[in-house]
Write a structure and sequence with these properties.
The structure holds three protein chains of three kinds. Helix content of chain A is about 25%, strand content about 35%. By secondary structure, chain A is of the alpha+beta class. Chain A has a single domain, classed as Ribosomal Protein S5, domain 2 (2-Layer Sandwich), CATH 3.30.230.70. In chain A, the strands form three sheets. In chain A, strands 1, 2, 3, 4, 5 and 6 form a six-stranded mixed β-sheet that branches. In chain A, strand 1 and strand 2 form a beta hairpin. By secondary structure, chain B is of the alpha+beta class. In chain B, the strands form four sheets. In chain B, strands 9-10-11-13-12 form a five-stranded mixed β-barrel. Chain B has a four-stranded antiparallel β-sheet with strand order 1-3-6-5, with no helix packed on it. In chain B, helix 3 packs parallel to helix 5 and helix 4 runs antiparallel to helix 5. The longest helix of chain B has 17 residues. In chain C, strand 11 and strand 12 form a beta hairpin. In chain C, helix 1 crosses helix 2 and helix 2 packs parallel to helix 5. The chains are: A alpha+beta, B alpha+beta, C alpha+beta. Chains in contact: A-B, A-C, B-C. The interface between A and B is medium-sized, with 14 and 12 residues.
Chain lengths: ~260, ~260, ~260
Amino acid sequence: MDEDAQENMIKLLSENLRQDKRGFEDFRDMTIELGVIETAEGSARVKVGETELIAGVKLKIDKPYSDTADEGILMVNTELTPLSNPNFESGPPSINSIEISRVIDRGLREGQAMDVKKLCIEAGEKVWMINVDVCPVNHNGNLLDIGAIAALAALHDTKFPEVDKEGKIDYKKKTSNKLPLKEDPLPVTVIKIGDYFLVDPTENEEAVMDARITFNFRKDGNLCAIQKGEDGPLTVDDIKKMADIAEKTMKKNRVIFEKAIK
Amino acid sequence: MTDENKEENKDKEIKSDSKLLVKNKDVVVPGQILAEGFDFLPSYGTYRKDDKILANKLGLVTMEGKVIKTIPMAGRYLPKRNDVIIGRVTDIGMNAWRLDINSAYTAMLSSREVGGDRGYSSYPKKGSLSKTFHVGDYIFCKIVKVNSQNLTDVTTNDRGLRKLQGGRVLYVNTHKVPRIIGKKGSMVNMIKQATDCKMMVGQNGIVWIQCDPKHESTAVEAIRKIENESHIPGLTNRVKEFLEKQTGKKLDIKEDDEEIRGK
Amino acid sequence: MVYKKRLDGRKMNETREIEAKAGVIKKADGSAYFKIGKTWAYAAVYGPRELYPRFLQNSNKGIIRFSYIMMPFSGMGERVRPGPNRRSKEISMVSQKALNSVVDLVDFPNTVVDVVVELPQTDAGSRCAGICAASIALADAGVPMKDMVAAVAAGVVDNTVCLDLSYEEEQYPDYAKEKLDSEHVADIPVACIPSTGEITLLQMDGIMNKDQLIDAINLAKEKCKEIVEIQRNAIHEKYKYKINKKSMDWKKELGE
């Protein structure tokens, strides 16, 4: 970490200032557009400040896992390509991009974004498999939260394609049936720089953070996933404060999200 | 009319076929036709193809008599001898530090080239280089040599050159540095006057600022404004108005910045 | 020739609607998107910058490294597994060669200019869209180049040479109700340097008559002269501004 950069950031924060003049608990302006990709069964483009991601959903019919024979499968993959950031490399994903992808995936899957039992066509034989791919186009921080929002919005936009009598999918024809969505899990990542807690960090802020926690909340208010990241330790008091901040922020984001998916 | 006169008139006819298709300060793109006919001469950023002159780079048209050239508007920094730049230490060797200078090429600062200002010992002992400059330090230095493969040597052995402590570093378009500095420093001095910031501008597109937190974002926004609007006339006045509005201070501009020319 | 009227009513030498914009990816040195019909390509340019591994370095000049990536949901059918595959590697190679002859990196020995093309949506003509986007992005990045490269796919359907086939048109003989003169379809991507007329990309996939080839190339070449104007304009739009002179006041209005 660049210690001078952190010192400078902490000087700003101590005067209650952020580089982009936001409040510590304010998200940047968010826009959510649905249906931007026609080749996908569902899609969304989300912009938060300068960060911009496109998420697309593709469906197929496959054999279920043997231990969940009557459940469909939801998989969320976040591809960090060099398009949006000169530091991303092509080739096998770095451990940081793997973490982002897995945290977003777990949040939606374990958070029960989907009622996977309703995706069963024939127990043990045929279930719907839902693949969400999140692709950043512009990167200025907070992929964890914004990626999850894009993925969830794309799921809301998704319609089942037509299936012919032989069970073959006709991708060119969409039905009007939407996915069996359930808990709408939304995450908020809170970061700690020095003694200060911030939400929706920019890349500059992420570069100097000591620690972060992503809290994922379901529609009913319960937590469904948590991930602590970075090297710095946190006290229990820190965690309590961060959880409170996350919950407050999540509620604001949920209002924006629900308006956008109507 | 004599035969001689007829020849002269023919020459004049050929010359008047020349046509200039752009004007000063137009933004031009590669492959764009700038002039037709043989009256004009291509220079930096332009080339001749048959009877036309075309641009070979994104740039701002500059006419110097019959010579058409462009000032580049984008592109990575290419190291040049005598440029004063800011580099970041990335590696420490036995006798030298390697610096990232925001270019495709890195620079080397030999231990023999340290010293002068700020009381560093002129020749740090071999093996103890990390005591003077650490990895991650930003160094304000000068380019002394660039070889044919663009390998670059720098020095801090000159007035004002030194390690930069604290503060914040911004990466800007290297081609906008002349506008950020201004004629005889007029623009950078105006920003300093308004915000009370310390500011050092490297030719390689790295800007170092150290500000009171209240004014930091104003300084940064002013720099970004210059970067984004440098091709639009009236920049100096716009920046002045912006700074006055943000800080409440009344500023005076020392030089008219409008006619700054690049290469 | 049964194929007199195209499926979407276009003329034989008409492309689908084109839209291009420069400077869309903030962290890149240069960037653009290029849309033709439903095919949509982003391009980001990073460099010239240090090139690793070292053995790829060229001490005489910088090199271009091209990366063609389809977003997993961008294909007409099933999901495309992310990551490079042989098709994308080949497209990367021919695209890089399409740009090599216009770019001049002699001032940047041992460096690389990374061109990343990523497509959120494809409907035929994707490699041409990628090359068009890449050209704009390279110019936007200030890379020295004698011209931008324009590219479009020519095609042959039912013995008729036409431009910019859509995916549907490529499949036409498979589902056409009327009897066609020929079942054969050909897809001919062409890239061209507009100021010289030289061809820098030529491929053909399908079945066609050799005599139709030159017609197809010429059709594409002519269209490239129009397409490059759109590409140039994408950069001009980025720098446009409106001057609002009121009395002697210097207030300037900035266009988008």
